[in-house]
Amino acid sequence: MGSSHEDLLRPGGSKDAYEFHTRLLAAAQRSGLSLERRLETIGVCSSQMALTLLVFESPFLECRPKKCPPEAYRGPHIQGAQGINCGRHLANHEVEVILFLATFVKMQDLVTSEVNLYSRTSIKQVASIKDLPASPIDLIINCLDCHENPLLREQSWYQSVIDWANQNSSSSS
Predict the structure, then answer these.
(1) For residue 142, what pLDDT is reported?
(2) Distances (CA, A) of 16 to 13, 20, 149
(3) For residue 43, how many C-alpha atoms fall within 13 Å in the half-sphere facing its CB?
(4) I need a labelling partner for 106 at 20 to 30 A (CA). Which of 8, 47, 76, 151 fits?
């Protein structure tokens, strides 16, 4: 059976995917994996998927990671911490990553811990849309959404990031 470029493009926000993800993490917790260990596992696995997409020879990736860095956007919740962790692992593979980190009044302790680890890498971190690149990006890792708090989508910074991503993804150019 052959493989197509469409096989690589998979939305990650479906209800079925979220329910499976939740069941999988609950099973890991029952098996004794700490929250930090589960977070690290998700970050490693996500970065491996991202690396596969970044090095795959395909027409929708016209420039390599060093030229068009992946973007990671994250919110102040566990999904945001997972995105930060993924970005850190990508940086460990010498992928240039840019993290959009909006200013939040309150973040979960796990997110703060991941931000501290992330800041020890050479990864660029920005807090304003104007500081994001104007050129197309190879890969966007969106960790803004949180099933537990859909109100984040109503924030002006959230919509600005989504608009920027829709305009600057390499697949839309």
Answers:
(1) 79
(2) 8, 6, 18
(3) 26
(4) 47
